[in-house]
Amino acid sequence: MSIKSICCIGAGYVGGPTCAVIAYKCHDIKVTIVDLNQARIDAWNSDKLPIYEPGLEEVVMARRGKNLFFTTDVDKGIQEADLIFVSVNTPTKKSGLGAGMAADLAYIEAATRRIAQVSKSSKIVVEKSTVPCRTAQSMRTILDANCTENIRFDILSNPEFLAEGTAIKDLMNPDRVLIGALQTPEGIKAQNALVSVYNHWVPIDRCITTNLWSSELSKLAANAMLAQRISSINALSAICEATGADVDEVAYACGRDSRLGSKFLKASVGFGGSCFQKDILNLVYLSTQLNLPEVAAYWKQVVDMNEYQKKRFVQRIISTLFNTITNKKIAVLGFAFKKDTGDTRESAAITLIKDFIQEHARVAIYDPKVEHEQIMMDLTEPGVLDNRKQVEQHVQICGSAMEAADGADALIICTEWDEFKDTNLDYSQIYEKMHKPAFLFDGRLILDAPKLRGMGFKVQVIGKTE
Length: 466
Ligand code: NAD
Ligand code: UGA
Prior knowledge:
By secondary structure, the chain is of the alpha/beta class. The chain has helices at 15-25, 38-44, 56-63, 74-80, 106-118, 135-145, 167-172, 185-198, 212-243, 247-255, 276-289, 293-320, 348-358, 372-379, 388-394, 401-405, 427-433, 449-455; strands at residues 5-9, 30-34, 68-71, 83-86, 123-127, 153-157, 177-181, 207-211, 329-333, 362-366, 395-397, 410-413, 439-442, 458-461. The strands form two sheets. The protein has an eight-stranded mixed β-sheet, sandwiched between helices. Helix 1 (15-25) links the parallel strand 1 and strand 2 (30-34). Helix 11 (276-289) packs antiparallel against helix 12. Uridine-5'-diphosphate-glucuronic acid (UGA) binds at residues 130, 160-164, 223, 226, 230, 264-266, 268, 271-273, 275-276, 337-338.
């Protein structure tokens, strides 16, 4: 079976870039990305796309209006498609059974029901969202219950492994594409049809085919293992600070072992992003449900260590600033959860700033890509600092690092944007503008600390004493 028309439900960080790249690489396939959110669709159809990703604009502009379309007409998108990606959000549940742990599958179910309701021909339905293991079973039950004689639905799992900030690069040249299917003749036929879509640009040996449940679990497993590496190096960073070992040197020495590899061993102020914590908690919940409490406790520790790392960093800042930051000006450089993205979901900066405000500090924030209003929204979310007035009184959002540093007692690097490196920012001018002693805390290990100490800064770096 050859796919001629694809619909993607969900025009978010995954659906948008993923399907834009499919359109870019497969001119013979019509790709329609649908979403209920009118503002988001309008932005995809405008000159200012709703998300920032290096290279995304070029890809979208090259194919939009040719074989790539963005619309809120969900039903028409579904009806016209041979294959439908379900790429809706699967956040952690906020209330009810499994609150704070389990994935909220309401959006998956709503999209699946819509497919069942409006389809007039057979479809391959692909789970693109990250979901708990065996979610495809529930989707199947809903779709089967609505099947008519001449319509059949085949379900595939095709989790996405892109990282934000490098999404286009990751999609153009993926380490692997994973496609899970029921191991029936029909399931394998559907699996092959999706392999042929990717095969327009991904070599066949990078397309891994597995059963449905392995594919679903592999996505949670990959994120859990990646996050585990960060928590491991962050745990070691605490030992480094107490002993004089240098976490960069430890990471390098360990990473040179080819069995360990060098990637994902950068100590930091803590991992953020919409998925690591959510997916680990999802795995913890799944393990608990399966009556595997030891397994649940094992993975939960990865999240606990991440929380500890953020707290530890805040404590180090406060104790260095003579145990009080009341009324002091703290300049926070970076609000996004990592560089090269405007995404702030679960960013470590949010936790840090919340703690600073609760200590009655004045906080000046600068991020090159995050909008002013987004920062206010994140800081006034329920559970963060729900009092907007308090936030407005304590927070100044700045247009440059220099403005944030003006009159500051401490400068905190929260996101590793290249423009914050000492080779790109004029730290001698920053030093002139700051209160003395001028404290500098590098939560991302991007600065040449000895050089900055030479300028007069009192520098503290995660995982280092000197
Ligand atoms: P997102 O919130 O950016 O986008 C989801 C979109 O789905 C929203 O625009 C929402 O309006 C839309 N939507 C929800 N229900 C809908 C419905 N019934 N019909 C039409 N549209 C609907 O989320 P995201 O970051 O793109 O993540 C999507 C999934 O991909 C999640 O499961 C996530 O875990 C997974 N994932 C995310 C990343 C990432 O880097 N963000 C990477 C890999 C996997
Ligand atoms: C992560 C995974 O890398 C993707 O493979 C996956 O598809 C995605 O989650 C997802 O499922 O959403 P992402 O969260 O976009 O991608 O970005 P990462 O590069 O993984 O960074 C996550 C967080 O870890 C960031 O806050 C980053 O700064 C931090 N990090 C990363 C470190 O602190 N140290 C490192 O060595 C690497």
